[in-house]
Amino acid sequence: MSALTIYPDNCADSGALYTDFTAIQKQLVTIGVNFEQWTSECLLPVDADQSSVLAAYATSIERLKRQCNFQSVDVMKLNPDHPEKTTFRQRFLAEHRHDDFEVRFFVEGRGLFYLHAEGKVYAVLCEQGDLISVPANTAHWFDMGENPKFTCIRLFTTPDGWVANFTGSDIAKTFPTFDQYVAEL
Length: 185
What we know:
single chain, 185 residues, alpha+beta, Jelly Rolls, 9-stranded antiparallel sheet, two-stranded antiparallel ribbon, 11 strands, 23% helix
């Protein structure tokens, strides 16, 4: 189940929870975030490689590439036994911005985006089938949990792909981790 909790950015103890997809969309659009659901054009095996994942969603990817002028697309897949899971998690946990907008589609598994905008923190639990588009220069961080299990299609408007401008803020340390958030749902 996708979920959204909106907190004041100075208080992670109280937030408004939304679990209805349409209600989540309505809240996120107020900060310029697109949130939608996709379905695969075919069934994917558990061990699907990057080319298989991209082929399964080719029609939707091509539509977005034309619509948004994306120049690069890749697939990120992390499992609990990935040797660099801790390194990846730490890099994404630091609040950062991107010069271009960030688009992620969850092929499988789930992850938690935290969007820091307009004096609030929007914690968005994305699950299989969810697509989130974070506007350029929106401060955010991402938590995949201590034992990540997800596959995401990532789309970029630059050929360089994922380039972060870290804010230096430690705000991410004051909000629930992925594991805490999921346990409280």
